[in-house]
Amino acid sequence: MPEPKFVLTKEELRSIYKPASDRALKKEMRRLDKHARRFIANSPFMLIATQDLSGNGDVSPKGDRSGFVLVLDDNTIAIPDRPGNNRLDTLENILDNPAIGLLFMIPGMNETLRINGKARITADEAMCARFAVDGKPAVSVTIVDVEAVYMHCAKAFMRSKLWQPESWPPRDAMPTLGEMLRDQMADGSDAEQTDREIADIYAKTMW
Fold first, then answer.
1. What is the CA radius of gyration of the chain?
2. Are the C-beta atoms of residues 27 and 71 closer than 8 Å to each other?
3. Which region holds residue 165: left if phi is over 0, alpha if psi is between -120 and 50, else beta?
4. Residue 157's closest CA among 106, 101, 97, 91?
5. 59: which residues sit within 8 A by CB, 6+ positions away?
6. CA gap 46, 87 in Å, rounded
7. 169-204, pLDDT tens digit by residue?
8. pTM for the complete prediction?
9. Phi, psi of 128 (to 5 degrees)
10. Are the CB atoms for 102 and 46 separated by under 8 Å?
């Protein structure tokens, strides 16, 4: 199969698509309004996009109890970081390049909230304590200065039927994480033992 011809300029790209509607352009805000605040307060899950100095991209999921992200004011939000695998891809990227993109989701709602801005990291004891769960403070907190905020339409979620259980594949359509890690790492590890260890980690270090 011959290599496809790639789009190389913005002008060429724009020639492929219809112009954006007035609504798509005008919906972008520079600060959090009451609807954005309410969306954040009801969201238990978000995606964080960052880049390092070389432009290598990363997207990381963040999930917690609904409203885990705190609105500090109309232009500032705070995101707690919980115990994880300590790769620190997102946090190290922020130190290299503070530009950040956020996508907030609410289960069952097809529309999402997008926020773009600049991020900083703090391990301030008082700030981390504001996000304590079961007496355990956040490990660190990412402060985001909001530069753009807008609602994103529902088409991706409608096409994917993401919130419709009847469209979901059976769990056994995919191997367990232990089985995937065994194959990917090619280290001869015991997949069942790995799954038990991961389950134990989840049980003990959720917060």
1. 20
2. no
3. alpha
4. 106
5. 47, 48, 49
6. 19
7. 999 999 999 999 999 999 999 999 999 999 999 999
8. 0.94
9. -60, -35
10. yes
